[in-house]
Design goal:
Blueprint (H helix, E strand, L loop, with lengths): L2 H31 L9 H6 L3 H21 L2 H6 L1 H29 L2 H26 L3 H15 L1 H8 L3 H4 L3 H29 L8 H6 L1
Helix pairs in contact: 1-8, 3-5, 5-6, 6-7, 6-10, 7-10, 8-10
Amino acid sequence: MPAGEIANRPKSQAKITFFILFGLVTVFVTYMKNQGFFDPASPTAQHYHPAFAFLLVHAFFGAIALVLGVFQLSNRLRARYLGVHRALGYVYAGCVFIAAPVAIPLSAKINTPSLVAASSVQAFGWIVTTAIALYCVRGGNIMQHRRWMIRSYCMATVFTIARVIIPIPPILAMGDTGVEIVVWSTIALMMFLPNIFLDWRAMVAQPKARQTMTAALAT
């Protein structure tokens, strides 16, 4: 086994473990949030009824994007099946460009104005990060493509992260206000946390020579 492969193995295993756990949590919160969805008399079904058509489109394409994004971030699958990776990447992007904008009218029919604004911001962020990732790979800038794909998928994870936090009793007791706080906070975190993750090594690395502001501006 090549030394590079041995070195990357713990990192790959950690990534696999994370995505398995994330997938299980996503399934769990989706089930718990949508109990009684197929029962017309249930509060859940009545809540979503005004936006049922938008919900079907958003849920279908959003779920595909959420699943495909996991495989797109796998270095091993990308190396072994580049053609498949490329094809699935276009499918992922297409699903994002459908699911994200549909979330806005969906939210407008069933949510508060603040949550409609949050859905609009998340949709815009998801579309922009995905479009930049697509632009970068089309131009052959693979490094930036990978970085923007990570940012894109982080915007998708808002769906799961927010639904994990909202049921916490003190937040749940706040009603719509608690939901708005969680959704806005999660979107804000996903806007900048990926940058910290991607640039962490560069930030903590000790430069070979300390550079003053005067020297930096002169350069």
